[in-house]
Amino acid sequence: MLAVQRGAAPNTIAAYRRDLAGAAEAIGPLSTARREDISRLSVAFADLAPASLARKSSALRQFYGFLVDEGVREDDPSGALPRPKTRRPLPRLLGHEEIGALFRQAEEDAASRTPEGLRMLALLELLYGSGLRATELVSLPLAAVPRDAPFLTITGKGGTQRMVPVSARAVKALSDWLVARGGGGRFVFPSPRGGFLSRVRLFQLLRDLALRAGLDPEKVSPHVLRHAFATHLLEGGADLRVLQTLLGHADIATTQIYTHVDSARLVALVNQRHPLARS
Questions:
Q1: DSSP 88
Q2: Which residues contact 64 (CB under 8 A, 6 or more apart)?
Q3: Would you say residue 267 has pLDDT above 90?
Q4: Rounded Cα gap, residues 189 and 120, in angstroms
Q5: Does residue 223 have an active-site annotation?
Q6: Of 138, 154, 273, 153, whose CA–CA distance to 195 is shortest?
């Protein structure tokens, strides 16, 4: 159902499978579990962080909802699941100077025209310049890169597609990399072992770049660069709805976390633009 009806990504399906398997190890077969069995999960999950507990509980609630919808069960025992209250953490951020240090190092490496240096610069340009998710970036097919338009066709979560603009400098970095890349494979960033570059390898490459740039590698990741893309766009005056489209968020509530990050700019905006403030 997750794969066919919802179009969930393989990583999402794997996470659901792990959560359900872990619950089954704690209380036995899930399809016949009673409310009393489900309530024992509060003890089994006692040491989990609130966010992890919320994710596992959500997976189980959806599982039992599916069983009821399919007529496998008449009752839904998921009401006995723990419901932790979580606050979504603010994303870690990189400042403009830190982003600049990353790019200076990547451009210096790319100046040698080695495939590794050109690839790293192209990866960095697309992560920070277009706000792509790590999976969207590493699995980017060659067919998604048009020759006559500064846009990428991205297939995001749930199989939804969106058009993402690419800056002139990113187009140049991508073009240089595609020349150095040569032929072989259908992905922009292929893996030597076949398929495409793994997310783990992308993470490692970014950490190595941060270290060479004199930054704390613990602060740098693909997702942190995506956060920087969003936050810096808001600082520049981007509309929240536009940002939602660029990031590929299905729900505007997901995008609204950046209003907390850039709260100072929003206060200034109200003070400057509201009719009462102007009067």
A1: P
A2: 73, 76, 77, 78
A3: no
A4: 10
A5: yes
A6: 138
- Residue 99 burial (CB count, 10 A): 19
Active site residue 16: no
Q: How far apart are CA 199 and CA 62, in angstroms?
A: 27
Catalytic option among 61, 73, 249, 265: 249
User: Active-site residue among 133, 181, 227, 232?
Assistant: 133
pLDDT digits (tens, 9 = 90+) for 109-148: 999 999 999 999 999 999 998 888 898 899 999 888 877 7
Asked if 205 and 217 touch (Cβ cutoff 8 Å), the reply is no
Dihedral angle sign, alpha carbons of residues 108, 112, 118, 120: negative
227 contacts 92 by C-beta, under 8 angstroms: yes
Question: Is 56 annotated as catalytic?
Answer: no
Q: Which of 56, 226, 227, 232 is catalytic?
A: 226
Angle subtended at Cα 48 by Cα 43 and Cα 52, rounded to the nearest 5 degrees: 120
Q: Is 226 a catalytic residue?
A: yes
The DSSP annotation for 23-51 comes to HHHHHS-STT--HHHHHTHHHHTTTS-HH
Q: Which of 40, 207, 212, 223 is catalytic?
A: 223
98 secondary structure, DSSP code: H
Specify the 3-state DSSP secondary structure of 21: helix
- Mention every residue, 6+ apart, whose C-beta is less than 8 A from residue 255: 230, 240, 243, 244, 247, 249
CA distances (Å), origin 38, targets 18, 35, 48, 226 = 17, 5, 16, 38
